[in-house]
């Protein structure tokens, strides 16, 4: 299921974000070389559209899962996805490699989640039904883990997800969150200890 952004096509982003550019172009007086400028601008727009489309396909689910883990709310997670990819459209660069693009998106997601946490009352919904389907024998354990992770403070919840859900090492998480690596290690340690307390002392992540 493609959750992010709402409506799987990115065309809605472009129609809004390039509207001002189109209006500006219509108002300009014709000058020598304008046709060349228009062609160049069209090529640039096509590159940006392709970059955003590929980024949505590759990292949309990662952004959504992080937002859902952090906020525990489907509508809020979808809002975060939309905002994050709009920011990529405005601030991203098609020349960025995959790792830089993904790190940018996840950092923006963390920041946007923090903003929403300050602005909105937390919706009381587990969003469990929105998680990917799992084999029947795994569902009870996965549900228990999901609910336990939801009881962690947001900073611990975030590093747990980035480490175990996205496979990032401590130093990489530190770079994404822009905090010291020691802070990430502390949050991971405390998060693991709390999960063991909630799930049973012998539980292993």
Concise structural overview:
The chain is mainly α and 205 residues long. 72% of the residues lie in helices and 0% in strands.
Distance between the termini: 26 Å
Low-confidence stretches: 5-14, 16-26, 28-34, 122-126
User: Overall pLDDT, averaged?
Assistant: 77
How do the helices and strands follow one another from N- to C-terminus? HHHHHHHHH
Largest sheet: none
DSSP summary: helix tally = 9
Instruction: State the total count of DSSP E strands.
Output: 0
Secondary structural class:
mainly alpha
Rg calculated over all Cα atoms: 20 Å
Query: What global shape is seen?
Result: elongated
Q: What share of the residues does DSSP label as strand, in percent?
A: under 5%
Helix content: over 70%
Describe this structure as you would to a colleague.
72% of the residues lie in helices and 0% in strands. The radius of gyration is 20 Å and the shape is elongated. With 205 residues, the protein is mainly alpha-helical. The protein has 9 helices and no strands. It has helices at residues 11-17, 19-27, 34-71, 74-91, 98-119, 136-150, 154-165, 170-177, 181-199. The relative contact order is 0.10. It starts with 10 loop residues before the first helix and ends in a 6-residue tail after the last helix.
